[in-house]
Amino acid sequence: MSKVRKVIQFHHQGKAKQFISRYMGLSRNTVKKYIALYRVLNLTIDEINQKSDSELEKIFSRDTEDVLSPKLKKVYDFFPHMERELKKTGVTKHRMWKEYHQKHPEGLKLSQFKAHYLRWSKKVNPVMHMEHKAGDKMFIDYAGKTLEIINKETGEVEQVQFFVAILGASQYTYAEASPSQQKEDFITLVENALHFYGGVPAAIVPDNLKSAVIRSSRFEPTINETFMDFAEHYGTTILPARAYRPRDKSLAEGAVKILYQRIYPVLRGQKFYCLDELNNAIWDEL
């Protein structure tokens, strides 16, 4: 019996992909491909049973995109543009769907659009799923876009930094505005985050900030001595993200992106005359 036929039969019986993969001795990606093609082709189990093994092998040897309907072809052609746009500040999947829907009003609804994008992105950007244990890591970073306060004495607008911390397992997020990224301000922010969480993680994962890492290296980065003393005092470890490896700090960057969408639009147009006022506004939105 064709392996394709057996995979589809198991899937029709409600068997999990992991079970099918182990039982058939096939990779999970192969099983996923067969099931995805089965859905895209909109075949019934009776139609599968009527085809010969050679016909099934010929049909299911193609890539999913090769058998897409004209409607889905337009969606998949849109995804490369969407992927580039999503890297820009404030751009969301919902916003990209609106742009797609304006060009193709007869196209997919939002939920289907997101599902197909997820399937497409996993194929073009495969990543390993990482499990985070509770209390294991705290990721920290600064947002690229600064915030503003007004100097009461001079009336001048001053730029302030936006610090973000996030726990790996729960993704519980802390944020605070600070005068600078200097060592003293940075240490204070990290300490405030620990007090906010009410505990100390096994490791703190910073980006390659000058206030945290003196010299970045793939194997032995040089940690700021003051930051090392801070970690020793609190009984934790510093594990800097590798340079040019954005997925090492993906949680922190994801938190920053969410704050861009939730915090920045709310603060826009408001005037703050001290950091306390600004931080109170930030914490009200968290």
Treating each run of at least 4 consecutive H or I residues as one helix, how many helices?
13
For this structure, what is the CATH class of the largest domain? Alpha Beta
**What's the end-to-end separation, in Å?**
57 Å
**How much is the radius of gyration in Å?**
25 Å
Question: SSE string, helix = H, strand = E?
Answer: HHHHHHHHEEEEHEEEHEHHH
Any idea what the shape is? elongated
In terms of per-residue confidence, which ranges show pLDDT below 50 for 5 or more consecutive residues? none
CATH architecture of the largest domain: 2-Layer Sandwich
> Main β-sheet: number of strands, strand sense, barrel status?
6 strands, mixed
Q: Would you identify the CATH H-level superfamily of the largest domain?
A: Ribonuclease H-like superfamily/Ribonuclease H
Describe this structure in words.
- The protein is 49% helix and 13% strand.
- With 286 residues, the chain is of the alpha/beta class.
- Strand 2 and strand 3 form a beta hairpin.
Overview features:
six-stranded mixed sheet; 13 helices; 3 domains; two-stranded antiparallel ribbon; 286 residues; Nucleotidyltransferase, domain 5
Describe the secondary structure blueprint for this structure.
Blueprint: H1 3-12, H2 17-24, H3 28-40, H4 45-50, H5 53-59, H6 70-86, H7 93-103, H8 110-124, E1 137-142, E2 147-150, E3 157-167, E4 173-178, H9 183-197, E5 203-206, E6 213-215, E7 222-223, H10 225-234, E8 237-238, H11 250-262, H12 264-267, H13 275-285
Helix pairs in contact: 1-3, 2-3, 6-8
